[in-house]
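Input.
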Amino acid sequence: MAEKPSVAMSYAKVLGATKRQDVYLEGNGYLVSWCVGHLVELAPPNVYDAKYVKWSIADLPILPQKWQYLVSASTKKQFGILQKLMHRPDVDSIVNSCDSGREGELIFRLVYQQAGCKKPFSRLWLSSMEENAIREGFAHLKPSTEYDALYNAALCRERADWMVGINASRLFSCLYGQPLAVGRVMTPVLAMTVVREAAIAAFVPEKFYTVALTLADGGTASSKRFVQKADAELLLSKCRKEGRVTVQKMERKEKSESPPQLYDLTALQRDANRLLGFTAQQTLDYAQSLYEKRLITYPRTDSRFLTEDMAASLPGLVTDTGRAFAVEEPIPIHVQQVINGGKVTDHHALLPTKSMANADLAALPAGERNVLRLIAARLLCAVGEPHRYAETSIITICAGEEFSAKGKLVLSDGWKAMERKMLGELLGKQKEAVVLPDAQEQSQCSVAGAELKEGQTSPPKAYTEDTLLSAMERAGAEDMPENAERKGLGTPATRAAILEKLVQMGFVQRKGKQLVPTKDGINLAVVLPESLTSPVLTAEWENRLTEIAKGNADPDEFMAEIEAQVRQLVKTYSCISADKQNLFQSERVIIGKCPRCSENVYEGKKNFYCGNRSCQFVICLLYTSPSPRDPKT
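Output.
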């Protein structure tokens, strides 16, 4: 049982199940079918009690004692086929072949249980969709019991999200008279954008002035910042008069910049946003398609290293990747830089596959081709040489003031040469390094020119998907133990969907590459309590779920804590002051003047009405479907 049709087709080809039936394939002793995402979902509140159809604070909190599930209305046919296949008398076992991760485990188990299946099942766990990897995976299926803890973590995540989302959304929607969606991860991310927007709005720029001296032997030395222009002008006058500087200190340090780590999904999404302008969701969609075409390994990974058993095959993959992208010069390959099995969780870092080397890359859609180029470039850079350079700093004295200059001399391009080769145009024009002349301390140098420069302090920058994904990844990290395996808000697999949901619900809007909170988003973040907006608390949740998945934490204890939080939330926030009740009401559209009393007439959902409550003027809007003309006309 696979998660998606395209993946099922790949499995069927390897297994020899080539006979097409109604939404499944058969052959060579196998039946191969698929789930189409979440077929089985948590039941809505009204299934537990009909009174929950109406939203009321009096009915909160809603905390199911026995969780109920329903088959999704849109996928009942597919569920029925899977149920029938599982109960066929000639089927003796099931293979859970859904995506190798927490959600894939949940999708299969819920279908299996809802179908009432009791037959034994095993687990296919893959990091690549290449045929040899699929064949190897089916030859070494894993016992289902190895993933029971992962399933428990998935259940906790799903049920905790339901409890917080249902109760908090109903609570605050009733309080403010407006449908408000509150989510465990979504709301803290929204709060981060609101805090950043508030910092930008509160920022007051301050002007400053510096004096810049152009040295005759090369380079520019700058003074400290002056708040008063007159002070800078006085120094400028003195420097022009003096006409030379004395070298007080010169320092030269050789430095190196290590090759970048391989991509996990979040790092790929950040670079694709920064360099290509893709949203996180677009990048995930392109990566998923490349995975299903067997051109890259499993994309939803949070690891940036490879396991020790992959070291032997890596040089060949690097060479094949370079050849596929027309890299003619020799590629240095330092395998050990990317090997660390201790830092690999469910899946290793993103890689191109061997199949990619023989694929027709020109036939790929442009978006997929660009994402594949990023992944290939990162592999070639990650195994490369360090970028080495000498950094020179000079402190000089002129007119009694210190002036400093910095220079850089590249000693060895290292991995950056490969980066330019692979991504040249995407990287944009690189700033040329300033090379300072060799100078002895206490020596003097003529000043070729002096000028006054004016600048001002800059506000914090609005979030882009690149910087917001980074902030989500790091959220709460400083408050968590060093050895915490998973930190931050959400997972690599869910972060893109969180950002898209915030945009779709009107809490955040895209302005070019920037993600900016809307008025409703700001209002929502402001009125919600810290327990719902704190990145630290939500990041703690994610770490606890990871510990549950490893079998190191008790699922029942976790759920008891979530239930207690929800009870406290409802108890604490059961009423608000009258002045806040209209916080989310949209601005009324003025249509014109009332013919009776001359007050403003507004447009409602079903009528035009006078803003003067004592005047009863109203025009009801009668719609036909489709409307023969605009009702305003």
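The first strand starts at residue 19 and ends at 21.
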